[in-house]
Amino acid sequence: MRWTLRMSPRDLVQEATAALLAHRLRATLSVVGLVFGVATVVTALAIAEGARRTAVAEIGALGIDNVFLRAVPPPSAPDGRRPPAAPLLSLDDVMVIEKTVEDALAVAAMRVARVQVSTESRRAEGLLAGVTVSWRDVAGLEVATGRPLIAADERAQRRVAVIGSDLSRALFGAADPVGSRIIAGGNSYAIVGRLRDRASGAPRPSIPTLDADRSLLVPLRAMDVSLGSGDALDRVQEIVVRLSDADDVARAAPVIAAVAARRHRVAPPTYEVVVPRELLRARLRAQRTFDVVLLAIGGLALLISGVGIMNIMLASASARTQEIGVRRAFGARRAEVVAQFAIEATLLCVVGGLAGLPLGAAFSAAVAFAAGWPVSLSPSAVALALALAAGVGLTFGVYPARMAASVDPIDALRAP
Q1: Per residue in 276-303, pLDDT tens?
Q2: Of 54, 128, 350, 356, which has the most beta carbons under 10 Å away?
Q3: Has residue 78 been placed in a domain?
Q4: To 10 degrees, the CA torsion angle through 251, 253, 255, 261?
Q5: DSSP assigned state of 196
């Protein structure tokens, strides 16, 4: 390419590309560090995004706009002879909360016990869950066959049940269980519905809650299984209040806590208020520190690779002193020399960045396989990694470019 008094951006890119291709080995060695730097950034961002999505999914599985009031078992006696106490909460608490929390869309309650569940020919361990009718709505449960529990079942204390998908397969195989009878906790129940399978790969909540797939849902007052001393059919282990949005959750949570404190004056409290939305915020706040550490590691790798590129570009400028002098003598401006070297450095970084992307994806997959951590490579992570690579090229390419442009043409022509 012949230099003229004016060079277009296209000419500068062609000159920079030709210079890099003329020294392939030097260019390749220059980008090795950058390739691993970009791969580190991509891996860090993939791990951070995977952790964020897992946190959102796990806590979201509880219902992000729900508030839980849970009974906490009191501490047992040191000698282990004192029988466990029944949960403190009751259906009266449900009614008070319904009247007190004006923004509640639904209030549901549950009591659950692990029991042996059997048919005439099969037996399996499962959860017998006595629930109010609105539990299906707050838990987001769907019926695949048959029908859900209805208000009439609850009023009449009918011994009917909706069976979870996993428990149904364990006891009935692929057959439809609706219409069959089942023994759970010493009582016989008629199966009126089967729950839909949980979505494949769907996350489990990060705090303990009902595993509906392994459960037999029955009307709450029809669950005649003792939960401890002082138990009654209206005692419950968990009350869930469903709100419409975040503002309602923020207002309702302290109200529910105040209702529980006023109705149950025990020390220490044998109940807790769980707000999934606040759990999610706390989890994401804690994760930001982890994200910063990962990005700092990736940034340090890019910084080291940038220093290496700058040294290579300085060596290149020294080796091409005579070439620069000839071009300056034929009218090349300093700005054009600066631009060519800056473009060379940027091209090196972009090529290294593109080469680092698949390597970062491979590292992410290896981390997911070896450590069992969730990873997620988002388009924004790819864009950020490439932007950082290009930024490193511009930042560390400016100094060598200015050094090359500052060479006096006469001195450059005299150089050996």
Answers
A1: 877 777 777 777 777 787 778 777 877 8
A2: 356
A3: yes
A4: -160
A5: P
